Structure formats: C-alpha cells, structure tokens
Amino acid sequence: MFTFPYDAVVFDLDGTLTCSDQGIIQSMRYALDKVGATVPVGVDLRAIIGPPLMVSLMELLGLDEHTARTAIGYYTEFFNREGMYLYTVYPHIRSILKMLRDGGVFVAMATSKPVRPAMAILNHFGLTHYFHRIITEEDNEKVVNKPELIRRALPESYRRAAMIGDRYFDVEGALANGIDCIGAGYGFGTEDELRNAGATHVVADTESLRAYLCPGAPIPRGYFLTMEGLDGSGKTTQMDRLEQSLRDYGYSVLRTREPGGCEISEEIRHTILTTDHMEMCPACEALLYAAARAQHVHEVIRPAVERGMLVLCDRFVDSSIAYQGGGRELGTEVVRTLNAPAVDGMLPDATVYLNIDHQLALERRHSASSLDRIEVESAAFHARVQAAYEKLISEDKKRFLLVDAEQDVDAVAADVLDVVLSRLEPEFEG
Ligand code: TYD
Questions:
Q1: Which of 13, 66, 123, 161 has the fewest Cβ atoms within 10 Å of its own Cβ atom?
Q2: CA 231 to ligand 1: nearest atom
Q3: Where are the beta strands (DSSP E) in 305-430?
Q4: From the alpha carbon of 289, which atom of ligand 1 is closest?
C-alpha cells in the first residue's frame, strides 16, 4: 500500500495553486488610478501578491489609511468584475489535490485573501471540493497573521504536516507551527527568499511538487474527450477556445486531431484529403481513416491518457461512422467493425457535438478559402452525415454533450466549457 510522506498539507492560494499576477496587478492599477495614487519609483507591483492588501497599500505604496480603504473598494469592484477571470490554475495542481485527497491526506488552504474573493476563485475553477478546510481572512479590518491562519487550517491531530507556499511569510508561518514548508519556487517569491527563510525544500515547478508530495504514487488515469460536428460547424475555433480554457483551469491538455495527430497518420491525412484523389473509393477511404486512427490511438492517445493527460481530440471514430457509414453509405456496422482494431477499446469518455443544421453549415463553408475532398461533397452527402450523427447521439445520450452551434461564437464557447466542466468535475460547484 502506498503511503504519503505528509498526512496533512496546507496550501497557500496565490502563487501556489493559482497564477494570479495579472488579476491582482490589473485590479491594483485600476484602484490606484481611481484614488489618484501612483506606484512609487522602484516598487515592483508584483510585491503586492501574497500579503494582505491593507499592508501593501500602506507600507509598500505609502497610502494613508483612509485612501487605502477607498482603494480596496475600487480594487474589489474591478477584481469581481474582471480581475478574477485573469487567474489561471498552475498545471498539475488539480491532479496533486486529487491524489492527496483520494489518498486520505488532510488537504487545507490558508490564504491572506478575504473570504469572498478566495471562495469566488476556488468556486470559479471548481477546486473547492478538494479541500477539507479553507481558512481565509475574515475581512480587511483586522489582519490575521499567517502563523495563525496556518494553525487554524491544520487538523486536530496529524503525524507530519507541510505548508506549501511561495513567499517568506508562508515559510515563517509554517516554522512557527513546527511543520515543514515546501517552497513553491514557481510562484512570486524567489528560491533564495524561500531558502533563506528556512524552507524544508524548494520545488521549481508543479511536477516536482507532485513528485515530492506523492512520491511513487500512481498518476490517476487521464480523460479522453473528443469534439465532433459537420464541416462548417465552427469546430476548429471551438477547439482553440476549449483548449485554452481547460489549460487556464489547470488541466494538462494534449490536443490532437483526426485524421492525423502523429507522423504516419498525418501522411495518411494528406492522401485522404487531397483533391488530387477524387477517384478514391468509399472502402479505401474508410480503411485509410481507420489505419490513421490505429496508429494515432497506439502512439498518442492511449499513452497520453495513461500518463494522466486530458486528451482533446478533434474528431474520432464517430466521424467515420457519420461520414463513411452515413455519407458514403457503407453502413454503420461495417464501419464500426473495420474500426474495431483501430479503436482497440479506447472509446471517448465524452464527446462534444456541435449541433448545426447542414444547410447553415454549408453556407458557412462557402465563405471558407479552400475546401478538401470531403468538404466539396454534395449537400445530400452532408445531410446523410447529419442524419448519421443524430442516430449515433440518440443511441448514446450519456456520452454525447450537445451544444447549439448556431449561436454566436462566444455563446457556443461558453456552453461547450460548461458541459465539459460539468462532466470532468461532477462535484464542480460552479
Ligand atoms: P477536419 O480536420 O475536421 O477538417 P478541417 O480541419 O479541414 O476543418 O476533418 C477533415 C475531414 O475528414 C472532414 O471533412 C471530415 C472527414 N472525416 C471523415 O470523413 N472520417 C473520419 O473518420 C474523420 C476523422 C474525418
């Protein structure tokens, strides 16, 4: 049985779990501008990340107490409206929290942020459910010191505990409580700052943090997510948007596509899609898609999912069933059968379907610059593809996540993210 070196772990928020510099600095610039204050010469605004705002405003930026309070009001207004959405979760953090929590380790957070913004961030990124205990400042009036915050975050009893933080006051707070401190060298402090303060160990990135907190622990299986839709459904744009959002949420994303995704399969892609081969027969086409898929699953998809990655794949076997089974009229069962050795049991955990009528998709395609051998097919072909997709979806309602792709781009992107997150994090609190 695997045992973790620490049975209680307390995380700081900014610079440890989340990368917050843009969110914090832009909110501060807005606040300073509103109260007519400027940043003193030689002061790096990044220094405000970590300590309570009141302390930074008065001690670092030299504001009097009244002006500082007014500035906090403006800061909060901007932060809630825009600043919070500039945050990102560091890579691997999600898997670290999950591994600790699933391994029975007590997981807590202690931050100098007031309760409302701290909870807003955790909820926004769906991280709240990983923590047994969350300790924040109650409000900006009375500043609680870090040792006290950490003391409150620790469980009643533990064998060995560690604080994970990126600034010297996190280290000092840990030492005051007699626990280890692992310095997050990837955050806003420097490695020297953390070592000089007495950190037990300093990690340069979150992958090293995972190795330190969960040495030798099996990495949880990743996730296989695909996106499907008719040509002209806006799939490429939505893949871009979803990929970026998932990275910002801290998922380790591997984006790939079919046909293609590795050298052999990209070569096959070219052979399939070039308009030089208009004579290609349906069976040849179907077998080439399957051949490309076999190598892609073997070389890219399965190994990445086993390494814990979230594989985001543009089209998969559903495309073959819809296009070759429906469009080319080879039939669903024939296409499914000839794809069995290619898929080799690696079915998607979930599939986003961009739902758009083939007529509207056709209009959108007409504005595209160059069309491939499949895209130039007749309207009747694409109508059969649509019908085949609809049949597939009706037979597997649990796997398919339907999104109305006839809306504007931003609305589609928001809906896609919504359905994907609710599937990835069932405990997600929004
Ligand atoms: P895609 O990469 O989505 O096109 P683009 O990048 O040009 O927007 O897909 C290429 C074409 O291949 C598309 O028309 C759908 C078709 N296709 C099949 O017919 N069967 C399949 O199994 C796959 C994966 C794609």
A1: 66
A2: 14
A3: 310-314, 350-355, 400-404
A4: 22
Same domain membership, residue 58 and residue 14: no
Among 280, 312, 323, which residue has the most ligand 1 atoms within 8 Å of its CB, making it the best to mutate?
A: 323
On the question of pLDDT at 257 being above 50, the answer is yes
* Total tally of structural domains belonging to the chain: 3
Model confidence at 430, pLDDT cuts 50, 70, 90, reads very low
Tell me the CA–centroid distance for residue 414 and ligand 1, in Å. 24
Segments forming the whole domain that contains residue 199: 8-18+87-213
pTM: 0.87
Average pLDDT in the 27-37 region? 95
Which of 57, 86, 115 is the C-terminal boundary of a domain? 86
If you measure from the C-alpha of residue 345 to the centroid of ligand 1, how many angstroms do you get, rounded to a whole number?
22
Residue 269 near residue 372 (C-beta atoms within 8 A) = no
429 is a domain residue: no
Mutate to test the pocket of ligand 1, among 231, 324, 367 (most ligand atoms within 8 A of CB): 231
Percentage of the chain surpassing pLDDT 90? 84
Cα(96)–Cα(212) distance, rounded to whole angstroms?
10
Q: Are 37 and 189 in contact (CB under 8 A)?
A: no
Residue 3 lies in a domain: no
Nearest protein CA to atom 6 of ligand 1, as residue: 236
Same domain, 238 and 277: yes
Which residue minimizes the CA distance to atom 7 of ligand 1?
Answer: 372
Compute the average pLDDT of residues 122-146: 85
Q: Which pLDDT belongs to residue 429?
A: 45
Q: Using the mean position of ligand 1's atoms as its centre, give its distance from the Cα of residue 358 in Å.
A: 15
Q: Identify whether residues 268 and 407 lie together within a single domain.
A: yes
> Which pair of structure tokens corresponds to residue 64?
């009097």
Q: Which among 168, 245, 203 has a CA at the least distance from the CA of 410?
A: 245
Task: Give CA–CA dist 99/278, Å, rounded.
Answer: 51
Tell me which residues have their CB closer than 6 angstroms to ligand 1.
231, 235-236, 257-259, 289, 314-315, 319-320, 323-324, 372, 374-375
Tokens, residue 351: 């599939």
Residue 315 region by backbone torsions, left for phi larger than 0, else alpha for psi between -120 and 50, else beta:
left
Question: Ligand 1, closest atom to CA 259?
Answer: 24
Tell me the CA–centroid distance for residue 316 and ligand 1, in Å.
9
Residue 200 maps to a domain: yes
400 shares a domain with 361: yes
Report the pLDDT averaged over residues 283-299.
Answer: 98
Q: What is the DSSP letter of 13?
A: S
Residue 1 has a pLDDT of: 62
pLDDT of residue 140: 55
Residue 193: the pLDDT is 96
Whether residues 155 and 186 share a domain: the answer is yes
